[in-house]
């Protein structure tokens, strides 16, 4: 798929650009951002479908005083290349991300995922690819769609991802500011002009759209739900009560399945709660870290 974002052009003013580097792992090149104290516990951030490192632009600096913070563009998203081997399924993407972490010599003590990023991190913990002391899911997309939507969504996403014309059509139809504002508003969130512009830049790129569609087309959340009762790692479910993308009730369903799960509500926040109110999200992450006890710093 052509039309990849260009770092020199599209990333010239990218948030936290000074922390960016490009890393070769799992047969592809990844865009990675890292900030904070090298001798502090490592905290891994995983964005959701159709997002990128920009999603953490304000949260990362708030966490950096206490953590060695790592964020990356997931395969096919933002400035990272698509997966070189296998499909972007949950287990497949988990193995690729684990390879990146090994290349970085990073062992996350705490992991934070937004939406689909939360599902990815939970899958990695269940598959023993990472062993953090705690997980934070911000509006985590951990449950499959119910009813007719569940039967249609994945096949439809797969068909859209396989058609090379679809990503270009989606990009062309959603790349204007008004269209992007509408997409964000439909998630229950409101972002400032900078946030809207960054999402506009992403959805204007057919390569990024293709990466998001491919990710959605190959994920099996039914298998994840079946394995959730075996999750022993303390899980904090952060919920924006205005989220229109992931039903807040899903978090309560997850809490009933996971023995060590707790729930915190960000009142008045939508799906992009961590972008709307990064200070509140940072406080919840720090509180979870405090509740699970001292975190180990990276081994040398």
Describe the structure.
This protein is of the alpha/beta class and 300 residues long. Helix content is 43%, strand content 16%. It has helices spanning 7-10, 59-63, 90-104, 116-126, 147-162, 165-174, 177-185, 193-203, 206-217, 221-227, 248-257, 273-276, 278-291, and strands spanning 20-25, 28-36, 42-46, 68-72, 110-114, 134-138, 235-240, 261-266. The protein has an 8-stranded mixed β-sheet, sandwiched between helices. Helix 3 (90-104) crosses helix 4 (116-126) and helix 7 (177-185) crosses helix 8 (193-203). 48% of the residues are buried.
Order of helices and strands: HEEEHEHEHEHHHHHHEHEHH
Global outline: globular
Number of DSSP helices?
Answer: 13
Unreliable runs, pLDDT <50, ≥5 residues? 147-153, 158-163
User: Structural class of the secondary structure composition?
Assistant: alpha/beta
Mean pLDDT level: 89
Quick structural overview:
The chain has 13 helices and 8 strands. It has 300 residues and is of the alpha/beta class. Strand 1 and strand 2 (28-36) form a beta hairpin.
Features:
eight-stranded mixed sheet, 16% strand, 43% helix, 300 residues
Spell out the blueprint of helices and strands:
Layout: H1 7-10, E1 20-25, E2 28-36, E3 42-46, H2 59-63, E4 68-72, H3 90-104, E5 110-114, H4 116-126, E6 134-138, H5 147-162, H6 165-174, H7 177-185, H8 193-203, H9 206-217, H10 221-227, E7 235-240, H11 248-257, E8 261-266, H12 273-276, H13 278-291
Parallel strand pairs: 3-4, 3-5, 5-6, 6-7, 7-8
Antiparallel strand pairs: 1-2, 2-4
Helix pairs in contact: 3-4, 5-9, 6-9, 7-8
């Amino acid at each position: 798929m052509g039309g990849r974002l260009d770092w020199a052009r599209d990333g010239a003013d990218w948030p936290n650009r000074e922390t960016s580097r490009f890393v070769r792992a799992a047969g592809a090149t990844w865009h990675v951002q890292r900030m904070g104290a090298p001798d502090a516990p490592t905290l891994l951030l995983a964005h959701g479908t159709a997002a990128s490192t920009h999603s953490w632009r304000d949260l990362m600096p708030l966490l950096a005083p206490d953590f060695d913070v790592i964020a990356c563009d997931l395969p096919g998203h933002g400035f990272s290349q698509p997966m070189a081997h296998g499909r972007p399924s949950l287990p497949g993407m988990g193995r690729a991300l684990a390879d990146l972490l090994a290349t970085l010599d990073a062992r996350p003590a705490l992991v934070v995922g937004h939406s689909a990023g939360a599902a990815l991190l939970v899958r990695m913990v269940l598959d023993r690819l990472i062993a953090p002391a705690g997980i934070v899911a911000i509006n985590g997309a951990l449950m499959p769609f119910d009813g007719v939507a569940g039967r249609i969504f994945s096949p439809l996403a797969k068909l859209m991802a396989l058609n090379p014309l679809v990503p270009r059509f989606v990009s062309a139809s959603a790349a204007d500011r008004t269209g992007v504002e509408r997409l964000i508003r439909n998630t229950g969130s409101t972002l400032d002009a900078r946030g809207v512009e960054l999402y506009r830049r992403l959805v204007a790129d057919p390569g990024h759209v293709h990466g998001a569609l491919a990710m959605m087309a190959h994920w099996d959340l039914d298998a994840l739900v079946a394995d959730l009762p075996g999750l022993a790692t303390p899980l904090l479910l952060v919920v924006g009560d205005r989220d229109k993308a992931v039903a807040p009730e899903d978090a309560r369903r997850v809490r009933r399945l996971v023995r060590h799960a707790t729930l915190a509500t960000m009142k008045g926040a939508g799906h992009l709660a961590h972008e709307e109110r990064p200070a509140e999200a940072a406080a919840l992450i720090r509180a979870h870290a405090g509740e699970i006890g001292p975190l180990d710093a990276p081994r040398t």
